[in-house]
Amino acid sequence: MSRDTLTIIDNRTGQEYEIPIERDTIRGSELNKIKASPDGPGLRTFDVAIANTATCESRITYLDGEGGVLRYRGYPIEELAEQSSFLEVAYLLVKGHLPSASHFDMWQHNIKMHTLVHENVKHFIDGFRYDAHPMGILIGTVGALSTFYPDAKNIDDEESRRVQTRRLIAKIPTIAALAFRHSRGLSYVPPDNDLSYPGNFLSMLFKMTELKYRPDPVLERALDVLFILHADHEQNCSTTTARVVGSAHADPYSVVSAAAAALSGPRHGGASEDVVRMLHECGSVDKVPDLIKSVKAGERRLMGFGHRVYKNYDPRARIIKKIAYEVFEVTGKNPAIDVALELERIALEDDYFVERKLYPNVDFYSGTIYEAMGFQMEMFPVLFAIGRTAGWVAQWAEMLANQERIARPRQVYLGEDLRHYVPLGKREDRSEQETEITGPY
Ligand code: CMC
Predict the structure, then answer these.
(1) DSSP category for residue 426
(2) Whole-model pTM?
């Protein structure tokens, strides 16, 4: 008869252990009971990059990487992208269910109440150099918000958590737009709360001398869907960062700033920027085979391809590819899309990519849309962060509600055994080989 347990025999001691299996996982604390000697350390798993360890219980996002399935709170991403709006999805992620019409009105009102930023936030942004990377501006400015809202440190106060959640979702587009206008030397445009969430964002970005900015409905909807698609992705690098920093009971602005810092890396949201850089560098369809060759030779990675969890087509990439053509109807075609399509065509037939199950991910096509809409490449990860803020705050709130302990992983120590301090004047110069281990500082 099958039992939901795992039997382990420790050959060091001959001892047998029976460990419960729950939802295809065993508890790490059970392994800790396995010891070579009663006073010795318990057994641990060695899992670099937390690749095969569940670090939390979550009810927010379901992801089946083999099947290419993504659901927020049970709803398929395709249905949400087709029928919902970003603010509704943000409600869904944070509260766990879709709002009634009256609750949605209230939620929208509550978010809009917080779209303005303190004048000093603008002065803070003015302090950045004209060519500062907007992601650096976003990370710094969101972190700085904790100094404007010291009540945010009251993380045990439900009302405070609620207000900071609204503030974060409301102010992220304002800060992103301030970073954009700063890079262009343009005056700042205050929020227009008559407009939708993405419509107001477009106004804060692109309004010039007109009295009222009227967003193009196709671009407004495209941006809204892109925010939906980026809103959450279970325990990815930045979300894990959010939960880890939050587990120390840091305030939510510090949490979101830390998460955005993780997102900025080129292996994560920073890839959106590098994809378009790569497409431009490649230049034309006839150069695609050379690019593929250099990727296969290990000289570079095909940016926007591959994923730790998806071993199938990323469902978000499929939706984004469709939106690209709707946007190009308005903006004109971005020629980089032809290079992207040819890259995808060749890669999906090539053994290197097929064997490794490398498919286009969310970042592969998004940049071609953003570029056509008038964003410089450095803004792409910032746009990713706007959508993902809803997920970060939902995951942060869930982590607190689950009363998770402070995150504190273990290590396998490979360093020196005990040695004693030698005074500076008595030390020899080290050989070049020895200094290479840590590198010259
Ligand atoms: N181009 C070429 N080869 C690749 C790529 C790629 N983009 N991605 C993975 N591989 C190869 C890699 O060389 C390795 O081959 P081998 O087994 O021969 O050594 C194999 O595939 C497995 O790669 P890995 O680095 O162990 O995979 P990972 O799960 O640690 O990394 C990843 C995932 C997303 C960091 C990686 O696929 C990558 O660097 N992709 C390019 C950057 C990118 O598009 N990032 C955005 C990710 S999706 C949005 C987000 O989460 O932000």
Answers:
(1) G
(2) 0.96
